[in-house]
Design goal:
The protein is α/β, with parallel strands linked by helices and 363 residues long. It folds into 2 domains: 3-37 and 51-133 and 255-354, D-Maltodextrin-Binding Protein, domain 2 (3-Layer(aba) Sandwich); 139-251, Periplasmic binding protein-like II (D-Maltodextrin-Binding Protein, domain 2, 3-Layer(aba) Sandwich), CATH 3.40.190. It contains 15 helices and 11 strands. The strands form 2 sheets. It has a 6-stranded mixed beta sheet with strand order 1-3-2-4-11-5, with helices on both faces. It has a 5-stranded mixed beta sheet with strand order 8-7-9-6-10, with helices on both faces. α8 (178-189) links the parallel β7 (169-172) and β8. α8 (178-189) crosses α15. The longest helix has 20 residues, at 270-289.
């Protein structure tokens, strides 16, 4: 239950691979195995080792509050309760987190459905098996001086805000990430052309993104909490597009974060998938059954440097988007199709059952 930073990811994987070689070519301990079942061709495990947790690895793009249910499950030991030892990697933005799943370097990936759709388009069959966010929580913040110069305020209609993007530079985490695709979506929704009418840059997340806005390397940033809330708290920017408040009705019921697994792994190890899903649904329910203040107190363990005001405001925005049952709907995926189509990144609309399944949810 360790969260590794992205710059250590390659080193860690290399170390694990070396250990596997030294162990006569056996796979990482427990990866894809049910509790108490030895790998194919290996001698039976001794009785005292039969209760050892199953080790799996999961990637996520960044450390952000849009992954609140993951932190709740870690804090309360829900993964351990399911007999799992989950090693979690962050990869610095959406895209690489899914590529390591496709490559088989991790067993699970928790990310945006747009990555699932992109993988399908590239011929990599993945499955979304549980939702931890059923509403878009990626908001846009505009530098306060730009907003003042362009007459943008809390009551400015969305169409006028979008028109004000002309000539500006927008920042998202990285190309291909959900933040980047949503930025493309809003630029094209304004009838503008990315690169010609509006600049679009990948600026990373966290303090790097806030610094890019403060230093006017970009005029607008798109991200999930807490970056938008923190930029506003520091007086650097003002809310530009408040998706958590439903400012764009076309994004209602947007499916934002799902747990992905390779289709072949799910077929071969359905019980491990069910264990992961149960742990996350249990976390979803905890989020819904406790107050924002209680949730913020729990998350302090993982976001210790975040100002109290920013953390609490961010938690309130995210908490309302967490589905207690983890269920995914066809509409949630179709809204992703609509977003990607307008962004210019969609190649087709496969049936939702080809990408999502609720069969692993607790009955």
């Amino acid at each position: 239950m360790v969260a590794a930073r992205s710059h250590r990811y390659a080193v860690l994987l290399a170390g694990l691979s070396l250990l596997a070689v030294l162990a006569c070519g056996s796979p990482p301990p427990g990866a894809g195995e049910t509790a108490g079942t030895p790998p194919t061709g290996a001698p039976p495990a001794p009785p005292e080792a039969s209760a050892a947790p199953i080790k799996v690895r999961m990637s996520q793009p960044v450390d952000a509050l849009s992954f609140t249910s993951v932190y709740v499950a870690r804090h309360h030991g829900y993964f351990a309760d399911e007999g799992l030892e989950v090693e979690i990697f962050t990869t610095g933005g959406g895209g690489p987190d899914t590529q390591v799943l496709i490559a088989g370097d991790v067993q699970f990936n928790i990310t945006a459905p747009s990555q699932l759709i992109t993988a399908y388009q590239e011929g990599a069959p993945l499955l979304g098996v549980v939702s931890i966010l059923n509403r878009v929580v990626v908001n846009a913040v505009m530098h306060r001086e730009v907003a003042q110069a362009r007459g943008i305020g809390p009551t400015t209609p969305l169409r006028d805000k979008l028109a004000a993007l002309r000539g500006l530079t927008v920042g998202a985490t990285r190309p291909g990430a959900l933040t980047y695709q949503l930025a493309l979506y809003f630029i094209r929704k304004a009838g503008l052309t990315p690169g010609d009418d509006v600049g679009l840059l990948g600026v990373g997340s966290g303090t790097a993104m806030i610094a890019a806005l403060e230093q006017r390397k970009v005029d607008v940033i798109f991200n999930s909490p807490p970056e938008p809330q923190e930029a506003i708290r520091q007086g650097i920017g003002v809310m530009f597009i408040d998706n958590t408040a439903g400012e764009d009705p076309d994004l209602a019921d947007f499916l934002q974060q799902v747990l992905l697994v390779r289709a072949d792994y799910a077929r071969e190890h359905p019980e491990i998938v069910r264990r992961m899903v149960r742990a996350l649904v249990r976390a979803n329910r905890w989020v819904n059954e406790h107050s924002a203040e209680e949730l913020a107190s729990l998350l302090r363990e993982y976001f210790s440097q975040m100002p109290e005001e920013t953390l609490l405001e961010s938690v309130r925005a995210v908490r309302a988007a967490v589905p207690p049952d983890g269920r995914m709907t066809e509409r949630g995926l179709l809204i992703n199709y609509d977003m990607m189509e307008l962004a210019g990144t969609l190649k087709g609309r496969p049936p939702w059952t080809a990408l999502l399944t609720n069969e692993y949810l607790p009955q």
